[in-house]
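Hi there,

I know you've been waiting on this one. I reran it after we fixed the sequence typo, so this is the corrected version. Both the input and the resulting structure follow.
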Amino acid sequence: MIQIYHNNRCSKSRQALQELEKSGQAFQVIYYLETPPAKAQLEELIKKLNIKPFELIRKGEKIYTENYKGKTLSDAEWIDAMVENPILIERPIVVSENKAIIARPTERIKEILD
C-alpha cells in the first residue's frame, strides 16, 4: 500500500495528498509530526529514498538554523536529530513497497503511481 508522510499545514503536502486522492489508489496517511517514525523506520525510509540523511533535513526550519546549521554530523546523528525533532523531516514523502520519493515537485508522485 502507498503511504504518505503528511503535514496538513504544508501546502506541498496537501497538494501531494490531493494527487493521491485523484489517483484512486488506496493509500495510508501518516501524520508524522503526531506519530513520528522510529529510528528503524526512518533508516528504512532513507534507504528507500536512496539519499543521505542530511538530504532529508528541512534546512529552513527554525530548529535547524538555531541548533544544527553549520554543524558536521554523522549520518546516525542526523537520523537521531530527525527522530528527536520530526519537524526537520522534509515533506511530503510518498512510499510504495520498495521505493520512496520526496514529492517536490508534486508531479514526482507519478514515479510511485506508475
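Quick highlight: The beta strands are 2-6, 27-31, 93-95, 100-102.

Best,
R. S.
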